Amino acid sequence: MTAxxxxxxxxxxxxxxxxxxxxxxxxSLLGSTIGARRAAVLDTAVGDLRxxxxxxxxxxxxxxxxxxxxxxxxxxxxxxxxxxxxxxRWFTIEADAPxxxxxxxxxxxxxxxxADGPDLGHGAAAHYADVSEANARALLRSxxxxxxxxxHDPQVAGLVAPLRRAGVRVVWRCHIGTDTHxxxxxxxxxxxxxxxxxxDAFVFSRAQYVPRHLAGxxxxxxxxxxxxxxxxxxxxxxxxxxxxxQRIGLRAGAxxxxxxxxxxxxxxxxxxxxxxxxxxxxxxxxxxxPLVVQVSRWDPLKDMAGVMASFADGSLDGAHLALVGPDVxxxxxxxxxxxxxxxxxxxxxxxxxxxxxxxxxxxxPMDDAEENAAMVNALQRQAAVVTxxxxxxxxxxxxxxAMWKGRPVVASAVxxxxxxxxxxVHGLLxxxxxxRVAFATHTAGLVGDRTRACSLxxxxxxxxxxxxxxxxxxxxxxxxxxxxxxL
Length: 487
Ligand code: UDP
Fold this sequence. Notes:
2 domains, Rossmann fold, 487 residues, disordered N terminus
């Protein structure tokens, strides 16, 4: 072990894990969107759970408080759980760069995709176990025997055994996976399996993701969801959306737009003041140009480079493409972000001038989560078409977010995206996510046919309302907690 490893582990032991403190919001707030009947069902379920938990805490642990779908979801689930009178907390682990390089490799392997990276042998397992043990000790300063802890994704799987030894009830929730298990997934499960043995229950986003070795174990399938009232998804006036997109340099001034204002989660008024941390654009898209938008982490599996290449082929003449992701500086749990963004910038520079003028790359600031969410909200609402050309996808909250906003979506038929979109009803699916020609054809077809785009957008909105709002996930989560609390 290096001196850096030792220092990280030692410092994690000295203090409790970092906690993301979240203000409570009563789940009844959702009633204005989901209606009285759904709100009443939710109220009964969370009331029952609250009674059953009594003084026990419900704790979520992951590797980052911002950036990516898990952080996005935890923020709201913890917020509504607290609003329901449950003592819900959210902590993030601390680890060093070799640890996160290892867990990023596991992430790719679980998606069934080969990835170079650290060897997964005994040395790696020992370091993973050491870091996990230290984080578990730090977490146990805030968690008591009998509390319910959900550990999210491979970064925190190593906490299962030490927490179980301390009498904590432990759920491991995996947000990634692939329908077709292969040598890559086998390799990842061979590494993770021994760390997971003692978990009380497991949660996956799709039944197909459950590995063979968990047959006969307590497994739940829970799909993610979105909060229709968050800064990312709440209604936004078109002129405010236009002003925000203009403020961040992804639309030329149309004149007459109001201030780049938005409602924060607590209902107060916010104004977008930050610039993108990085913006590569020769000039902002003209106000009348259709905007094609993909919002994703800078991860090779999101295939931002593939979107750019298909777009540059020419069939989308007249439209502009905005590839938007989080700031890549200082992200500890995703070591690939800055490399992938750098590759996109190189590709962008190499585009012929005419294509380059229609492609824009932006990294959004992450230091104010609500302002970042308002930027994403505005961009998705301003998009003529939202794309998600992922090569693999656990679920794909960006797709749900766009569907909720009634946007026509073109997305790969992979993972959880297949559960969200029925081709031709709620959006268009790309059978082969690497098929750039089909991707460009689908996207150009929707840019050029507003009637079809509107009809798919309307279908998408209904689908999101019916299946992918937070009340459904809160209900399923309550059932999971009731089962685990009763063990
Ligand atoms: N996201 C964001 N700002 C960004 C890029 C992404 O808030 O600059 C959010 C996005 O809106 C979505 C989440 O990160 O809520 C990504 O979740 P998804 O399930 O699509 O993919 P993941 O990153 O978890 O693989």
